[in-house]
Amino acid sequence: MKAVDTEAIVLRTAAYSEADRLVTYLTPAVGKLVGIARNARSSRKRFGHCLEPCSRVTLTYKPGTGLAWLERSQLLDAHLALREDLPRWSYAALITEILAEMTPEGDAQEPLYLLTRSTLEQLASDPDPLNVVILFLVRFMRTMGHLPDFQQCRVCRAPLAGQGQWIWQLPEGRLLCPAHRANGSSPLELDLGTLLLLNQAAQLPLTRLWRLRVRKDRRQALRRALLEWVMAQTHRPLKTLKVVAQFERLPQPDPPGIG
Ligand SMILES: [Zn+2]
Fold first, then answer.
1. Mean pLDDT by 10 residues, the chain (259 residues)
2. Cα-flanking dihedrals φ and ψ of residue 132, to 5°?
3. What's the 163 CA to ligand 1 centre distance in angstroms?
4. Tell me, what's the ipTM?
5. Which domains does the chain have, with CATH numbers?
6. Distance of CA 157 from the midpoint of ligand 1 (Å)
7. Cα of 222 to ligand 1 centre, how many Å?
8. Does the CA dihedral 38-41-44-48 come out positive or negative?
């Protein structure tokens, strides 16, 4: 089969055998791509430092049935600034884990690829990395078709307006107006300003996304709820949350299906 050239971002690398490595990529043309880098552990000639998670690379591979055969790779961006900052690096690891868990294989994912590429660049430089993570999560869920309707109350269809706290009920993902707020299993209170910002984060062109700023006193609750929503889709705990928690020392969402 003919070799294919693509740009790609490394999501995950694992030992496959004594000499080989199993690498998971995000690509624009085929979404998630999983392939074998033969002899990558002994010879650095063909792959060099291109197998590190978060690295942006050019990749030549031969599609196979199931796994691809990785032929060679060249580094475009190692994201060194990210690697040298452990809290930011833990956020990057969280993002790549979510992508590896949720991106389907075989379908074109150009908007998702561009979002990820932009997110990693922003995460390295933004004064507020948590703000970047929240905006990524909203945009990611929208891109994957999993973002709940944040435009109206699920019960009465009332549009966003007025005073009072709205409720995002998890894990169902229903948005409820102040009149229909109920005691859910895990309700997140959302003020009107935050809801409008979430809708903007879902729709703005990527070049303007990072200008949005989530209110500081809303960030932890929002991030916690968004990750709970991610895990409601994957039905699996996110392993990197433990690492993130070490740097934040803050309460984390419960793993799905437990408690
Ligand atoms: Zn309502």
1. 95 92 97 93 75 95 92 93 93 97 95 98 95 97 94 94 86 90 77 94 95 94 93 93 81 58
2. -65, -45
3. 13
4. 0.99
5. 1-78 (2.40.50.140), 80-259 (1.20.1440.120)
6. 6
7. 21
8. positive
